[in-house]
């Protein structure tokens, strides 16, 4: 008799989901954001198809404004997994020089939401894995594991397919696609525990170190390159910081911390009890229902 | 949190977070997992209870709590009190309308277990949502308002939980604070419920008197208010209830194959989630339905080969022999394999706005098998409130019925009560791709088990070789009066002249004999087409070129016939005549009758014609004569 732990059961479920997609979709892709959830998702994909490499490409919908450490790990992780890496940057956003300083919400909309839609259409992917978890945000708690999207990538929360047992309905018409969330039932603590148990490589920014920072709108922002517009006479201050979540560096708030090991990070997380996305400026646009609105527009 | 009096459950590991995080993580590394569903309405205090479970296990973060307090004052229904419904209700549309329409999943953990709570709020679509949430649950918490006792909704929730096979039922008698923590009230409710539970086959349940609002018997029992209660607190019970992993692992081994892993010519692995039993290298297994046996060579994982694997794990097996095995097959214990059958008695929960159409082909997905299937007219429908059996011709949204299901080919299955993985299925609409129903197999019908396919010495290939032709089914479809019969006749005449062996099945003629028992209801029209399809299939087996002329207005039925035949033998011929033209011709005077209302359900008038999307041949009758049309069709089938 062998009793499975919660992590073993979560792992088995995620692997089952990935294999179902592989068996039923024509052209799947794994969206890879380089964050810790993406790292876990990629690790599970390696396990699901071992000894084959995961039989689909990794795709990063890039904004050109991610942390440098993220770009470094992204390229290494794809290489280590033996997977093709597709980096997509919205050409219009690139041409117009869309950036987080001058364009506000348009930055996320054009680089991420539009960029993702363009990329999925361009490559004709009919199933895309994403690392979202149900415990992250209220509207996600109700989203299916296989989440159906119209040909224009829209999500209709009132018209979701019932999902019973572990039977996933992957049938769809031409042009329609499915977003698949294999980590739906994982919590933030599960993710951290799994990273520790499996020795998964994550971006060092999750751990505290001295980094150059400035304060903007109550958020502690790391100055990651020379594109950051400093005020006249302003000097970035070296602070011991880490990140709870990673995105575009000018939009991602750091927390002051000395937690430099994984277990110290988890300790801090359990003691501070502030929910995860709070450090990310993007959720605040549009108030309460902002994530749900973004999802209906096609954001992951 | 001034309004919620906390009775803090102090887990002994909490202090460890600050003192010794590694020790804390060690303890939490090896937790089990329990999935449960909460049944009841907001009136029963369900949201408050879930909110309390999250709060007591420290799963509400400070910023969420602050947002909750603000929301409660702005849109809450509890005055200045915290409205926990806001915490567990997700979507903006629902919040505005004050209704919840779906299944939401919540997470919390104690030192012993991680919990996933399926919450199915609201009254609308309750059956559909509860069945969905319950399908993955190990346990159901059935909430009762102590002031109201056992209500019809309590019975409904219990019936559904039992129907979906949840073995652990908790009767949470809530709002005990509002009845003065009166033991007699509690005992009476338990006794009432006990009688009912027994009547529907629930053998065992655990009753706990609680107050979600005050926290009594949630984390610690007995609460000082209920000294008369000697059982566990709700959380203690959730932490310790035996989930029957032993039983699951003691069952014979089964693994539905999801995917064949073939990185190179030297490796061939079969990947899947083990649904029952356990497996080790050297075990003899049988591939079902083929029946071939082999031995497990290795259990391959990225962390190295394993000595054993058990139900609930996703693995990749390699076998000692080169046996045929692919997605949809089940690898099973050689001495106790599951059966394959193609006809079943099932319970079906209908989940779509569009009613069940008996006889229509749906996709049936069971484990990793997807196959075309039809549902017969239900034997009866079950009223979820009174549990009475009602006569039914169909099933509509949220209705539950018992009906026979027939699959196109035998599938590997087990009775649902023995294996949820191999006994539960979904039905998918072939046109909209929506999941329209969930079903549970009771047993296979004898017919499928005892009528074996008799292999014949003269095969269909022999038949067609003798006739020196490739068999085919030319399926003419089109409106009444479009010219189907006329063109079909010309085609057959021409083929006969070319010494081809043919047979023309005409719609009107078949109704004089084979199908004279059928009328023109939707179900009868489907059965008409099914029989014609089967007859045409036998004729192609005999090597004939079969020509049929039926209106066959529905795509699903034409697809059903297409799926009966080997690939490329079904040739759909759309006789495309505009309705105005067909009506103007009105050879049989039927359109006139239909327009006057004398004839009901007439295709094109008050019943739809679904045009073929990709017919093999399309004949535009406004552009060619029947002779020209026939030549064109023959040119396509005779190379």
From TrEMBL, chain A:
Q: Which InterPro entries match?
A: PAPS_reduct_dom, Rossmann-like_a/b/a_fold, SO4_adenylTrfase_ssu, Sulfate_adenylyltrnsfr_sub2
Region (Disordered) residue ranges read 276-300
Q: Which reaction does it catalyse?
A: sulfate + ATP + H(+) = adenosine 5'-phosphosulfate + diphosphate
One annotated GO biological process = sulfate assimilation
For this protein, what is any one GO molecular function term?
sulfate adenylyltransferase (ATP) activity
Q: Which family does it belong to?
A: Belongs to the PAPS reductase family. CysD subfamily.
Q: Would you tell me the protein name for this molecule?
A: Sulfate adenylyltransferase subunit 2
Q: Which organism is it from?
A: Altericroceibacterium indicum
Instruction: Identify the gene encoding this protein.
Output: cysD
Automatic annotation (TrEMBL), chain B:
Task: Tell me which residues make up the Tr-type G domain.
Answer: 31-246
Q: What is this enzyme's EC?
A: 2.7.7.4, 2.7.1.25
Q: SUPFAM superfamilies recorded for this chain?
A: EF-Tu/eEF-1alpha/eIF2-gamma C-terminal domain, P-loop containing nucleoside triphosphate hydrolases, Translation proteins
Gene Ontology molecular function = adenylylsulfate kinase activity; ATP binding; GTP binding; GTPase activity; sulfate adenylyltransferase (ATP) activity
User: Residues that bind ATP, according to the entry?
Assistant: 478-485
Its domain of life reads Bacteria
As its record notes, the protein acts as a catalyst of: sulfate + ATP + H(+) = adenosine 5'-phosphosulfate + diphosphate; adenosine 5'-phosphosulfate + ATP = 3'-phosphoadenylyl sulfate + ADP + H(+)
Which CDD domains does the UniProt entry name for this protein?
APSK (cd02027), CysN_ATPS (cd04166), CysN_NodQ_II (cd03695), CysN_NoDQ_III (cd04095)
Q: Which family does it belong to?
A: In the C-terminal section; belongs to the APS kinase family. Belongs to the APS kinase family.
Report the protein's function: Proposed to provide activated sulfate for transfer to Nod factor. ATP sulfurylase may be the GTPase, regulating ATP sulfurylase activity.
Question: PANTHER family from the xrefs?
Answer: TRANSLATION FACTOR
Q: What is this protein called?
A: Multifunctional fusion protein
């Amino acid at each position: 008799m062998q009793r499975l732990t919660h992590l073993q059961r979560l792992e088995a479920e995620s692997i089952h989901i990935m294999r179902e997609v592989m068996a039923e979709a024509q052209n799947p892709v794994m969206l890879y954001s380089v964050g810790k959830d993406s790292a876990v998702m990629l690790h599970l994909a390696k396990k699901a198809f071992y000894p084959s490499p995961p039989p689909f490409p990794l795709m990063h919908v890039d904004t050109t404004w991610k942390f440098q450490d993220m770009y470094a790990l992204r390229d290494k992780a794809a290489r280590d997994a033996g997977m093709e890496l597709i980096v997509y940057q919205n050409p219009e956003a690139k041409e117009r020089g869309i950036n987080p300083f001058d364009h506000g919400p348009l930055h996320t909309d054009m680089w991420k939401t539009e960029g993702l839609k363009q990329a999925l259409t361009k490559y004709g992917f009919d199933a895309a894995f994403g690392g979202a978890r149900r415990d992250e945000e209220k509207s996600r708690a109700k989203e299916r594991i296989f989440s159906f999207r119209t040909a224009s990538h829209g999500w209709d929360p009132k018209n979701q397919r019932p999902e019973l047992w572990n039977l996933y309905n992957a049938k769809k018409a031409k042009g329609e696609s499915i977003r698949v969330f294999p980590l739906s039932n994982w919590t933030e603590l599960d993710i951290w525990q799994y990273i520790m148990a499996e020795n998964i490589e994550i971006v060092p920014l999750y751990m505290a170190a001295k980094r150059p920072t400035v304060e903007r709108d109550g958020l502690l922002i790391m100055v990651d390159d020379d594109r950051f517009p400093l005020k006249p006479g302003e000097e970035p201050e070296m602070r011991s910081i880490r990140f709870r979540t990673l995105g575009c560096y000018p939009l991602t708030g750091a927390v002051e911390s000395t937690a430099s090991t994984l277990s110290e990070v988890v300790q801090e997380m359990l003691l501070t009890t502030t929910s995860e996305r709070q450090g990310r400026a993007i959720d605040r646009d549009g108030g309460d229902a902002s994530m749900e609105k973004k999802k209906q527009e096609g954001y992951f | 949190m001034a309004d919620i009096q906390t009775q803090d459950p102090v887990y002994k590991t909490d202090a460890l977070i600050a003192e010794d995080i590694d020790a804390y993580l060690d303890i939490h590394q090896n937790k089990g997992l329990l999935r449960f569903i909460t049944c009841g309405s907001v009136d029963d205090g369900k949201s408050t209870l879930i909110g309390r479970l999250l709060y007591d296990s420290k799963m509400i973060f400070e910023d969420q709590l602050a947002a909750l307090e603000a929301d409660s004052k702005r849109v809450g229904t509890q005055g200045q009190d915290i409205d926990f419904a806001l915490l567990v209700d997700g979507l903006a549309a629902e919040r505005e309308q004050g209704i919840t329409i779906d299944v939401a999943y919540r997470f919390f953990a104690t030192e012993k277990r991680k919990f996933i709570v399926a919450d199915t709020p609201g009254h609308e679509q309750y059956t559909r949502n509860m069945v969905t949430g319950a399908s993955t649950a190990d346990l159901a918490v059935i909430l009762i308002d102590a002031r109201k006792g056992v209500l019809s909704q309590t019975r409904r929730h219990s019936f559904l939980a039992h129907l979906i096979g949840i073995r652990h039922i908790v009767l949470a008698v809530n709002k005990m604070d509002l009845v003065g923590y009166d033991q007699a009230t509690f005992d009476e409710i338990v006794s009432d419920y006990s009688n009912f539970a027994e009547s529907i086959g629930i053998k065992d349940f655990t009753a706990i008197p609680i107050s979600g609002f005050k926290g009594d018997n949630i984390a610690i029992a007995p609460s000082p208010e209920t000294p008369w209660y000697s059982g566990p607190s709700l959380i203690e019970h959730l932490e310790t209830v035996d989930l029957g992993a032993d039983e699951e692992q003691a069952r014979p081994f089964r693994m539905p194959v999801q995917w064949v892993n073939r990185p190179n010519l030297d490796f061939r692995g079969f990947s899947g989630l083990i649904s029952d039993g356990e497996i080790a290298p050297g075990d003899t297994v049988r591939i079902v339905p083929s029946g071939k046996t082999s031995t497990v060579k290795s259990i391959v994982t990225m962390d190295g080969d394993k000595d054993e694997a058990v139900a609930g794990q996703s693995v990749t097996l390699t076998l000692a022999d080169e046996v045929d095995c692919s997605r949809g097959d089940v690898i099973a214990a050689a001495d106790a394999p599951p059966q394959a059958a193609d006809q079943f008695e099932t319970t079906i929960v209908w989940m779509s706005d569009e009613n069940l159409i008996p006889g229509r082909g749906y996709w049936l997905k069971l484990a990793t098998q997807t196959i075309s299937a039809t549902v017969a007219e239900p034997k009866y429908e079950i009223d979820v409130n009174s549990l009475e059996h009602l006569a039914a011709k169909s099933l509509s949204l949220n209705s539950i019925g018992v009906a026979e299901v027939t699959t196109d080919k035998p599938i590997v299955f087990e009775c649902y009560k023995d294996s949820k993985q191999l006994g539960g299925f979904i039905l998918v609409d072939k046109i909209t791709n929506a999941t329209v129903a969930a079903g549970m197999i009771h047993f296979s019908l004898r017919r499928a088990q005892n009528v074996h396919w008799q292999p014949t010495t003269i095969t269909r290939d022999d038949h067609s070789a003798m006739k020196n032709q490739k068999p085919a089914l030319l399926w003419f479809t089109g409106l009444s009066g479009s010219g189907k019969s006329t063109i079909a006749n010309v085609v057959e005449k021409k083929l006969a002249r070319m010494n081809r062996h043919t047979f023309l099945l005409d719609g009107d003629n078949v109704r004089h004999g084979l199908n004279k028992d059928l009328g023109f209801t939707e179900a009868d029209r489907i059965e008409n087409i099914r029989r014609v399809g089967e007859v045409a299939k036998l004729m192609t087996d005999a090597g004939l070129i079969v020509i049929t002329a039926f209106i066959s207005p529905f795509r699903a039925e034409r697809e059903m016939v297409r799926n009966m035949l080997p690939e490329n033998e079904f040739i759909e011929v759309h006789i495309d005549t505009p309705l105005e033209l067909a009506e103007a011709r009105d050879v049989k005077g039927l359109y006139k009758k239909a327009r006057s209302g004398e004839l009901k359900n007439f295709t094109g008038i008050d019943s739809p014609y679904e045009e073929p999307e990709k017919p093999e041949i399309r004949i535009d009758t406004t552009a060619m004569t029947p002779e020209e049309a026939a030549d064109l069709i023959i040119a396509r089938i005779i190379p």
